Structure formats: structure tokens, C-alpha cells
């Protein structure tokens, strides 16, 4: 799908509700496809799958389905070759795996590790392992992280049945865990990090779960809400504190001391996205309506200013850099999704 002929730089979609969770499809045959989750403060929420029509160069909603509670995160299976079923995962009260077809989206499995109780501790986030798409990790307000194994089972008729099991569950923090992300280091399957309400970034290795490494602690012990690994250099990660106006860049080889602070935002930062194709570019988005792209290659010298700034028409609550289309960034604010050519 070539949009270069038309050469529009921005495409916009307006949803019928406030958009919170949002992500790009990864499959090579579904290029300008994204999933959006509603943020409605009640049980009934929605997920929409939208795609850019080449002819009209407009976004079209291909599919809407119901979701209990708002989705805290949405991810498509990280399948760059298109060899797995077309799956989508969402977190909220549980981790759900959905199968997407041209006509409908169907719940494939619901992953719940509190089998013995009706109580569920809401999931704050999850990550889908890029090296092994049969691995997912979830983070929860109950202080734990859970690593799940997926099985894409035998083909029955024309359908592969997908099921999941708990590979391991661990107490990751002293308080709520707010985000989890697999690292590409050491083969990309075994290492992950998490952040949480105790203000720490912790690193884990599935082969040695008896101990973890604290990479960083917020000086004021403010909760850390997000963490994001550099896509090209597994030594670097970015994190941000609750209500914080800066993004902290960390180097795992130099624990506890930030190598850079990105602090041009005038209101609290809500999202971080590293460039998929470059180790020195990162995008941050905030309540000041701004999405800023930074070049951090002069670290550890201070990084004063971003190299690009885009001002949206509202507070930006999510930013995602398309992993397979590295010149496109998606942001959402209010009820709008915008994709921006960079």
C-alpha cells in the first residue's frame, strides 16, 4: 500500500468515545491497521479495529467488539512474517487473546491465574515477546508479574485453537506493578523489566528468578508508570514517573544514574515510544498536547531540545511508533487517533 503518491502527512480518525489504548498491527499484509480501546468509566467498553483506505485515504472502522472495562493496553501479535494466526491481546480485568478475521473478532482465550477465586486483580499492562510470540508477560496491581505460555494448538477443521498456561508468577515489587517489558538482551526470551508504585525499575531473568536487579529508583519514590526498551540497543530503557514532566533514560550498565533526562514538556508525560529502526531516537507525548521526537546520540551530554515537535488538539495520552513502518507515529487524544509521517 503506497501512500507516497498522495503524500499526506497526517491522517485522522474520530472514534465515538475517548481513546486510551492503541496500537499498530505488525503483519506485513495489514499495513495501516490499528486497534483502539475506549476509555469509558463503566463496565461496558469497546475495541475498534481501523484501517486506512488507500483510495479515499480515510480511516474506516472495520470492526467493533465489546470489552469489559477499559483496555489498559492493546497489542497485536508481533508476527512480522504473517505466519501465526491474526491475534490481538488486551489487558484489563484479565488478559484476553482475540482472533481477528475479515468479518468479526472472536475471543480466543481468557487468561486468569486466580483459578481458585472470583476475585481478580486488574492488569495494568502486558508485553508480547517479539522473539517468541508464544510468551506474554502481564503486570498487576497485586504486586506480581505473570509470564504466560501460549499454545497455538492443532488445526481442527480450519481453526487453530489457542490456549494459554502460567509459566511463572512472581512478586515483582513491594507495591502495584504498572508496566512490564521484555528485553532484547541475551537472546530476547528470558529477560524482562518492570516498574511500579514503589518507584523502582527492576530487571528479571526467567532462568534465575530467585533474585532481581534494581536498575533505578525514583529519588522521591514517586510511582513509575511506564518503561520502554530501546529497540536497537538493549542497554537503554526509558521510564517516567506519575505526574512527571520528564522522561528518564537509563543504561543498565550504569544502574541508578540516568544517562539523560528529557524535560521539555510543560505537563505530565503519558507516553514513550522508541524508534523501531534507530537506537538514538525516541518520541514522548504529554498533557501539554505535544509529541516530541528526540535525538539522544550525544548522551551522556545533556540533551537540551527535541528535533521535532507536533502539537495536537488535545492532551495526548498514548503514542506508538509503527514497528514495521518506521516513518509513521500514532498518537491519540480525546476521541481522536492521528498518524503522523516523520
TrEMBL record:
<comment type="pathway">
    <text>Protein modification; protein ubiquitination.</text>
</comment>
<comment type="similarity">
    <text>Belongs to the WD repeat DCAF7 family.</text>
</comment>
<dbReference type="InterPro" id="IPR036322">
    <property type="entry name" value="WD40_repeat_dom_sf"/>
</dbReference>
<keyword id="KW-0217">Developmental protein</keyword>
<keyword id="KW-0963">Cytoplasm</keyword>
<dbReference type="InterPro" id="IPR045159">
    <property type="entry name" value="DCAF7-like"/>
</dbReference>
<keyword id="KW-0853">WD repeat</keyword>
<dbReference type="GO" id="GO:0005737">
    <property type="term" value="C:cytoplasm"/>
</dbReference>
<dbReference type="InterPro" id="IPR015943">
    <property type="entry name" value="WD40/YVTN_repeat-like_dom_sf"/>
</dbReference>
<dbReference type="Pfam" id="PF00400">
    <property type="entry name" value="WD40"/>
</dbReference>
<keyword id="KW-0539">Nucleus</keyword>
<dbReference type="InterPro" id="IPR001680">
    <property type="entry name" value="WD40_rpt"/>
</dbReference>
<dbReference type="InterPro" id="IPR019775">
    <property type="entry name" value="WD40_repeat_CS"/>
</dbReference>
<keyword id="KW-0677">Repeat</keyword>
<protein>
    <recommendedName>
        <fullName>DDB1- and CUL4-associated factor 7</fullName>
    </recommendedName>
</protein>
<keyword id="KW-0833">Ubl conjugation pathway</keyword>
<feature type="repeat" description="WD">
    <location>
        <begin position="262"/>
        <end position="304"/>
    </location>
</feature>
<dbReference type="GO" id="GO:0005634">
    <property type="term" value="C:nucleus"/>
</dbReference>
Amino acid at each position: 500500500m503506497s501512500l507516497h503518491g498522495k503524500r499526506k502527512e497526517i491522517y485522522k480518525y474520530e472514534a465515538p468515545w475517548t481513546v486510551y489504548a492503541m496500537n499498530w498491527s505488525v503483519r506485513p499484509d495489514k499495513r495501516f491497521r490499528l486497534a483502539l480501546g475506549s476509555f469509558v468509566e463503566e463496565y461496558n467498553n469497546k475495541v475498534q479495529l481501523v484501517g486506512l483506505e488507500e483510495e479515499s485515504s480515510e480511516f474506516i472502522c472495520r470492526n467493533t467488539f465489546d470489552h469489559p472495562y477499559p483496555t489498559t493496553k492493546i497489542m497485536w501479535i508481533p508476527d512480522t512474517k504473517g505466519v501465526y494466526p491474526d491475534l490481538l491481546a488486551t489487558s484489563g480485568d484479565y488478559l484476553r487473546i482475540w482472533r481477528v478475521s475479515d468479518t468479526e473478532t472472536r475471543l480466543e482465550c481468557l487468561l486468569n491465574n486466580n483459578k481458585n477465586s472470583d476475585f481478580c486483580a486488574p492488569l495494568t499492562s502486558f508485553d508480547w515477546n517479539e522473539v517468541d510470540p508464544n510468551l506474554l508477560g502481564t503486570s498487576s496491581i497485586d504486586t506480581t508479574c505473570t509470564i504466560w505460555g501460549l499454545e497455538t494448538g492443532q488445526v481442527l477443521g480450519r481453526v487453530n485453537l489457542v490456549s494459554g498456561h502460567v509459566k511463572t508468577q512472581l512478586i515483582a515489587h513491594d507495591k502495584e506493578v504498572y508496566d512490564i517489558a521484555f528485553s532484547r538482551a541475551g537472546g530476547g526470551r528470558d529477560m524482562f523489566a518492570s516498574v511500579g508504585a514503589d518507584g523502582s525499575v527492576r530487571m528479571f531473568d526467567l532462568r534465575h528468578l530467585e533474585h532481581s536487579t534494581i536498575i533505578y529508583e525514583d529519588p522521591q519514590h514517586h510511582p513509575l508508570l511506564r518503561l520502554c526498551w530501546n529497540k536497537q540497543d538493549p542497554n537503554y530503557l526509558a521510564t517516567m514517573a506519575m505526574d512527571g514532566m520528564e522522561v528518564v533514560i537509563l543504561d543498565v550498565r550504569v544502574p541508578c544514574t540516568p544517562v539523560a533526562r528529557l524535560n521539555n514538556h510543560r505537563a505530565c508525560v503519558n507516553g514513550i515510544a522508541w524508534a523501531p529502526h534507530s537506537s538514538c531516537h525516541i518520541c514522548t507525548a504529554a498533557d501539554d498536547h505535544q509529541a516530541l521526537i528526540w535525538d539522544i546520540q550525544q548522551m551522556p551530554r545533556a540533551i537540551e531540545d527535541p528535533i521535532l515537535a507536533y502539537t495536537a488538539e488535545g492532551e495526548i495520552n498514548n503514542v506508538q511508533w509503527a514497528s514495521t513502518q518506521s516513518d509513521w507515529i500514532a498518537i491519540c487524544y480525546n476521541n481522536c487517533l492521528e498518524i503522523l509521517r516523520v
